[in-house]
TrEMBL record:
Keyword Phosphoprotein carried by entry: no
Protein name: Oxidoreductase
CDD domains: SDR_c
PROSITE patterns: ADH_SHORT (PS00061)
Molecular-function GO terms, alphabetical: oxidoreductase activity
Cross-referenced SUPFAM superfamilies: NAD(P)-binding Rossmann-fold domains
Amino acid sequence: MNDTSGRPLAVVTGASSGIGRELALECARHGYDLLIAADRPLAETVAACQAEGAQVQAIEADLATPGGVDALHAALAARPVDALLANAGHGLGHAFLDQDFNAVRHVIDTNITGTLDLIQRVGRAMRDRNAGKILITGSIAGLMPGTFQAVYNGTKAFIDSFAYALRNELKDTNVSVTVLMPGPTDTEFFERAELTDTKVGTQRKQPPEEVAKTGYEAMEDGESAVVAGWKNKLQAVLANVTPAEVLAEQHRRMAEPGKA
């Protein structure tokens, strides 16, 4: 990607809809050009960001695969990345023993493997330049055992922990790492994860633009972590003092299929 505008560059993954699309729009509104990626068409996000004055390049690729990460990284063409918003991820509902393991592996490879691969590649260049911002989309789901979402919550527990650790490793540099921890958000996540027949799938959710604004501002301020929404902040606090067995039972009531 060639730098012809003089604007800083932000890379946003999972940008086709939901939080990722809104994060891309936040970047466009605040003066960034964009390289966006997702495993689905990106034309609507491209048009919306261009309307905000950004130059936009889009890569449709599966970031769960090494080839997908290679394609995104190659598109940079050595242009420095000022902000990496690693948002790609998806969920998977129902009981673990009933899930297809290829679907399980794809969640892990999207939420963890591909995310870490991209962060390492871009983060090394940021460290070499001693400049850059990284925003990683974790989840308050990572703070609790995810009954009927065991794999998804496990991946987000990994990501939440990883973000804090990477931030500490970079504390003597000018590269910041922020983890955004949303709660249930009004996106296509629940349809794709087959959670529409659950209580959490049918309850009222936070608008993605609110979550994205919270995350973007935390990234720009260099904060370590931010939980989007006051109800989710309360839930995060309670998760730290509630026994895991109790949290698992509470999660069952929210995510058990057929309990909408």
